[in-house]
Amino acid sequence: MTAPVRVLVCDDQALIRTGFATIIDAQPDLEVVGECGDGRAAVDLARKLNPDMVVMDVRMPVLDGIEATRLLAGAGVEHPVKVLVVTTFNLDEYVYEALRAGASGFLLKDAPPGQLLHGIRTVASGAALLAPEVTRQLVGKYAARIRPAPGAAEGTALAPRELEVLRLIANGLSNSEIAATLVISQETVKTYVSRILTKLDLRDRVQAVVYAYRNGLVT
Fold it and tell me: Which residue has the higher pLDDT, 86 or 11?
């Protein structure tokens, strides 16, 4: 028997927090080890309880979810914790910043329980949760803000085919859609994605999207 995934739930709305915890705790492979209502408490509890991952709201008092995510999973953190951001997308203007801060993915708060559980398991496994349809919404909403970094290179570390795959990822295509577009197998797509992440020293698919926009590889 493998140990259950240990989850910390952080949301300033008690009803949502309790609902998430109830759904998660009902699963034999998941366990809620703590709950809190602000980002500062999330950071403190995460450091104390050492959960496998944190389900994090964005808009909270004391310390918002973006800063809390940066402290738990951002660049330079010695022992990063996986973070799944949950947000009301149409109201929340900070999703992109949360992903840049180190979140491994995000879900909408009105997602059904099954999607929440899938998201937790996906992020806990080390994969990124960035649904293609949500990627398209995110890109459409934030593309004007995501400026190429000064001196950005045109993905020089990548082979032409890898660069092509990265651009398709950034445009919100799933592995199966990329396979159909390039007329290759999904296994080959997975191999390309793995190479891209390794060559660019990126953690996951989320960071690949951010990298592509920051480096002017897509517009």
Answer: 11
Same-domain check for residues 125 and 169: no
Give the pLDDT of residue 141. Answer: 56
Range of the domain at 62: 5-140
The domain that holds 184 is classified in CATH as 1.10.10.10
CB 70 within 8 A of CB 97: no
Please spell the DSSP secondary structure of 165-209, one letter per residue: HHHHHHTT--HHHHHHHHT--HHHHHHHHHHHHHHTT--SHHHHH
Tokens of 15: 């009803």
> 30-36 and 5-10: which strand pairing?
parallel
48/157: higher pLDDT: 48
Instruction: Record the pTM.
Output: 0.68
Q: Are 65 and 58 in contact (CB under 8 A)?
A: yes
* SS3 (DSSP) at 87: strand
Q: Within this chain, do residues 102 and 165 fall inside the same structural domain, yes or no?
A: no
Are 18 and 115 in the same domain?
Answer: yes
**Which range in 2-16, 110-124, 167-181, 205-219 is most confidently predicted, on average pLDDT?**
2-16
Residues 65-112: tens digit of each pLDDT: 999 999 998 878 888 899 998 877 554 566 677 777 888 877 878 888
Q: How far is residue 75's CA from residue 85's CA, in Å, rounded to a whole number? A: 17
Pairwise CA distance, residues 24 & 203, whole Å:
25
Nearest-CA neighbor of 66 among 34, 36, 35, 102?
102
At position 15, the amino acid (one-letter code) is: L
